[in-house]
Specification:
The protein has a domain at about 5-115. It has helices at about 10-15, 35-45, 50-60, 70-90, 90-110, 120-130, 135-150, 155-170, 175-195, 200-210. By secondary structure, it is an all-alpha fold.
Length: about 220
């Protein structure tokens, strides 16, 4: 931690003992709500480079699991941003670990079938696909898709999960027919979402048109 960073984070980290699931206080620190634990993952994950807004949110206790959906959406955005940084750095190990821990925190706080849990599961699937282990991406993506099918999520998110799962299935040599169906379904969902998703539609079309069919894909970051 650099000298100019808030000193209050260290006591919070001690309270968690490095575990995203621990909620018991230590050394006099008050118990942290699960929402704050998720924010603490952001801080621990990038250390001194964690965005200032996340540090402020953690210290001011602005986000808890009982807050409005708007706050949960903000927290979800932070999770996405941090995981994207790991992927851009090529730090796939931390991208996978971070997404996995985040989904565990959300599931514990909100319930395993809450719509928000589908998002870090999608991020984990993308990270595993980028790491070249598409077979390991299937389980979190299947869980994410099952949540999306049962919960109120945007067509765009459901499309992202469907297309990522399609790619993982093909890249791992699994059910190609289902993969094609999922990719075509993703196109329908992007269209349903409305304007602004032309790039997504083009990405799916390009994947479907790969030489020798989608089986020619090689897993890589997207």
């Amino acid at each position: 931690m650099s000298p100019d960073e808030p000193s209050g984070l260290s006591s919070s980290e001690q309270a968690l003992g490095g575990s995203c699931n621990r909620t018991s206080p230590a050394d006099g620190d008050e118990e942290l709500p699960s929402g704050d634990q998720a924010l603490l993952i952001d801080v621990q994950s990038l250390g001194g480079e964690a965005p200032a807004a996340i540090k402020a949110a953690l210290e001011n206790k602005q986000y808890t699991v009982t807050t409005s959906l708007g706050s949960l959406a903000d927290l979800r955005t932070k999770v996405k941003d941090i995981d994207k940084v790991h992927l851009q750095r090529g730090d796939l190990h931390n991208a996978i670990s971070y997404a996995s821990r985040s989904s565990a925190v959300f599931a514990e706080a909100l319930g395993a079938k809450h719509a928000t849990v589908s998002f870090p599961l999608l991020l984990e699937g993308k990270a595993r696909l980028a790491a070249g282990v598409p077979a390991q991406a299937i389980a979190p993506l299947e869980r994410s898709l099952a949540i999306c099918e049962a919960a109120a999520v945007s067509p765009q998110q459901k499309g992202d999960v469907s297309f990522t799962l399609a790619r993982a299935l093909v890249a791992s040599g699994r059910d190609r027919k289902r993969a094609l169906d999922l990719a075509r379904r993703a196109k329908e969902l992007y269209r349903e979402q409305g304007k602004g998703y032309e790039d997504k539609l083009g990405e799916v079309d390009a994947w479907l048109a790969l030489p020798r069919g989608p089986s020619a894909e090689r897993a890589g970051p997207r």
